[in-house]
Design a protein that fits this description.
Order of helices and strands: HHEEHHHHHHHHHHHHHHHHH
Shape: globular
Structural class: mainly alpha
Strand order of the largest sheet: 1-2
Distance between the termini: 39 Å
Radius of gyration: 21 Å
Largest sheet: 2 strands, antiparallel
């Protein structure tokens, strides 16, 4: 029997994370309690290894597993974003796990498994493989959302996420079935070829149109786009803050990786048929996210609605559909990841055992008692607002420029107006820290070096990638 030749390079980053995840889970069974802290560093080494392999493979353009996975710059770019999100989450989690008494081995193993699912989604060129990656990621994140088993809000968050996620998966899978029924294939390249041959006029069959609509629903849930966003605020608030950060960045990046590959590759010839749907969804998502964030008093819920608004900005780039639009989306995901992970890391730093300190009032006077921490939070808030020269401004500039150049001027105008609205609730955090008195005490970052490393790294990235955007944008264009 001759075994088929397998291109293992395409899945090597995922293989590394899988092996390290299994090792973490097995090692946790017999190691002593005081030694479990080393599991974080083992997990971090695994993520670093996956990132290094992804970087080393840059420039290759191959397929694997009978064309179901792609080894290309696009997948590798998203691998690096996923590794960034996972590594930052591990650093943030080091002290958080101890203070909240979470199961160490399960936590890190599930985190790595979720990252494997994300990488599969980014590399998949087959709708079934995308679904498998989606479910691998989702199952791990469902458990992580409710890993604080004695916490009622965490249990509620996990249950809501699971039920609505299963519902969305049904929409996605039914959409895959309809696309297969209309085109005879689930491979993205073959679907694109069939559409260009049979629907060259830009009009598809009813079955294919229904399939695309259902896929939009499935992806819309994962990226938390309105009106499929209702799960996000409760889940973000109830989940552990570190996992909320991981969901806000990693899950969104992986979902957009598949979303863009499916619609711009497979359904690119039908752009005129689905772009108006995403135009409306983008406007509703930006508006609902920003307006609802205005009235929040819990900072995690505010960041949840902020995340919904940013999904709208990303959809603007996707609607543009050009090469510049795709590159702008990828650059914006890097920008969003840096400033959002940094903001959530500060939320972790302000909280302590038994006192999550997630209300706006808990940040009162932070600028006077802990000036360094408040300064870094200010940088993240200003960047999320879109203040130059920080990375948030550069990202929004690229996104709205792509929309204008593609002829979607009103969409860009609505996006800019929404950015102006968002300034209120972001600046509100800064005003609270510097212009109100408070007495909340925060454990010094010197006692939590891993968390301090995450916050400083995010701060440096938020500044440097904004001031020097040429290299990241060039990589995004190449991808």
């Amino acid at each position: 029997m001759i075994l088929p030749e397998v291109n293992w390079s395409a899945v090597m980053p995922s293989v590394i994370l899988t092996v390290v995840g299994i090792t973490v889970l097995c090692w946790d069974l017999w190691m002593k309690e005081q030694d479990r802290k080393y599991l974080a560093w083992l997990s971090l080494v695994g993520v670093a290894g996956a990132a290094y392999v992804s970087y080393a493979l840059w420039g290759r353009n191959e397929s694997a597993f009978n064309g179901m996975l792609a080894l290309d710059a696009y997948a590798l770019f998203f691998n690096l974003i996923i590794c960034l999100a996972t590594a930052m989450t591990i650093l943030m989690s080091r002290s958080y796990i101890e203070s909240n008494e979470l199961p160490v081995g399960e936590y890190y193993a599930l985190l790595l498994v979720a990252a494997v699912g994300m990488m599969l989604m980014a590399a998949a060129t087959d709708l079934i493989v995308i679904f498998l990656g989606l479910e691998t990621m989702s199952m791990a994140v469902y458990v992580l959302a409710g890993i604080r088993r004695q916490n009622v809000k965490a249990n509620e968050a996990a249950l809501k996420y699971f039920l609505l996620g299963a519902f969305a998966s049904g929409f996605f899978l039914y959409g895959v079935a309809l696309v297969y029924g209309a085109t005879g294939s689930v491979k993205l390249g073959e679907v694109a070829a069939y559409i260009s041959t049979h629907f060259s006029g830009g009009q598809s069959s009813l079955m294919l149109s229904a399939g695309m609509a259902l896929l939009i629903v499935g992806f819309g849930f994962k990226v938390a786009a309105a009106p499929f966003h209702v799960w996000a605020p409760d889940v973000y608030e109830g989940a552990p803050t570190t996992i909320t950060a991981f969901m806000a960045v990693g899950v969104k990046a992986a979902a957009f990786a598949s979303f863009v590959r499916v619609f711009l590759l497979s359904f690119g010839a039908l752009h005129g048929q689905w772009e108006w749907i995403l135009w409306v969804v983008a406007v509703v998502t930006m508006t609902v996210g920003n307006l609802t964030a205005l009235v929040q008093d819990n900072i995690k819920r505010m960041l949840a609605y902020s995340s919904i608004a940013h999904a709208g900005y990303l959809l603007v780039a996707m609607v543009a559909g050009s090469e510049l639009g795709g590159a702008a989306l990828m650059y914006y995901l890097v920008a969003y990841g840096l400033m959002n992970l940094g903001a959530f890391a500060v939320v972790v730093a302000v909280g302590k055992k038994g006192e999550p300190n997630e209300e706006f009032n808990d940040y009162a006077g932070l600028g006077f008692r802990y000036p360094a921490l408040a300064m870094m939070m200010t940088i993240f808030m200003l960047s999320l607002t879109g203040i130059p020269p920080l990375v948030g401004f550069t990202g929004k500039f690229y996104v709205f420029s792509a929309a204008v150049k593609a002829g979607y001027i009103w969409l860009a105008v609505i996006g800019v107006l929404n950015s102006v609205v968002s300034a209120y609730y972001y600046i509100r955090v800064v005003v609270t820290m510097y212009m109100q008195e408070g007495e909340k005490q925060v454990e010094p970052l010197s006692a939590r070096p891993a968390l301090a490393t995450a916050i400083v790294a995010a701060t440096v990235g938020t500044i440097l990638v904004g001031v020097l955007p040429a290299k990241p944008m060039a990589l995004a264009r190449h991808s």
